[in-house]
Design brief:
alpha/beta, Rossmann fold, 29% helix, binds 6-phosphogluconic acid
């Protein structure tokens, strides 16, 4: 990845990380809507982005929700009411308070009878939205990613075959190190994004962060984000930047 499309922004704490993420959200949304009339954003699960979603919920007028379409980066294969379900968190913290209508949300259909069928159903839904007849991979305007303690991102975990998927847009993932089967966007889709923002917060991420950001030979999943034509912004709070 060339240096010019990789921005590392070290910020004092989690609050400033969320503020910086919001600034990028506002800017990329305005640019996308100006260019094509709508804005697509794919959201990760986990705990780090929750304050971002909660802050978005207070910005009914400041963000262009009527032209915004929300997608998921990944999901756990549990019911939509299960506390570990990523969409439940996005819905309760942002979609519901803002009154965002279902037509503006494309979520992983965990109600399908297997994780694999949930993955295929989600891929079909994305293809329908992006009118997939004439594209190889969808290009999201903005994507928020996190980093796991093992260097995973989305639900792409070290050493699993899903890292080398080059055709499918969405796959299901069985991984003994986590408590649920997962459904995740694949690297070809992640690396097609126009702008990816990594949210890297907390001392428990510091060791992975320095490897991903400083070791050019690092092959951890979070280090395999290399946008063909886009910008990756790494928002890193002081604790996560401990070894930088
Ligand atoms: C998930 C996420 C995952 C997350 C990292 C970091 O479904 O868990 O998509 O990739 O971003 O595991 O999680 P935290 O933000 O909770 O540290």
């Amino acid at each position: 990845m060339s240096a010019e499309n990789k921005i590392i922004q070290i910020v004092p704490d989690r609050n400033s990380l969320i503020d910086a993420a919001l600034t990028t959200w506002k800017e990329t949304a305005a640019e996308a809507i100006e260019e094509k009339g709508y804005f697509t954003v794919a959201l990760s699960g986990g705990s780090t982005p929750i304050p971002l979603y909660q802050k978005c919920a207070t910005l009914k007028k400041e963000l262009p929700w009527k032209d915004t379409y929300i997608f998921q980066v990944d999901e756990r294969y549990v019911g939509i009411d299960h506390d570990d379900n990523n969409y439940k968190s996005i819905y309760e913290n942002m979609v519901k308070p803002l009154g965002i209508i279902p037509a503006h949300v494309v979520r992983v259909p965990v109600e399908n009878n297997t994780a694999e069928n949930a993955a295929r159903g989600y891929e079909d839904a994305i293809k329908e939205f992006f009118c997939a007849r004439n594209i190889q991979f969808p290009r999201f305007d903005l994507m928020f990613l996190g980093i796991g303690g093992d260097g995973h991102t989305a639900s792409l975990f070290p050493g699993l075959t899903s890292l080398s998927e080059r055709k499918r847009w969405v796959v299901s993932v069985k991984n003994d190190t986590v408590n649920h089967e997962r459904i995740t966007l694949t690297f070809p889709v992640l690396n097609q994004a126009k702008h990816i923002v990594f949210l890297m917060s907390g001392k428990d991420k510091a060791y992975q962060v320095v490897k991903v950001l400083k070791n050019t030979a690092c092959d951890l999943p979070a280090a395999l984000i290399r946008l063909q034509d886009g910008i990756v912004t790494y928002l890193v709070d002081k604790e996560a930047a401990w070894y930088m």
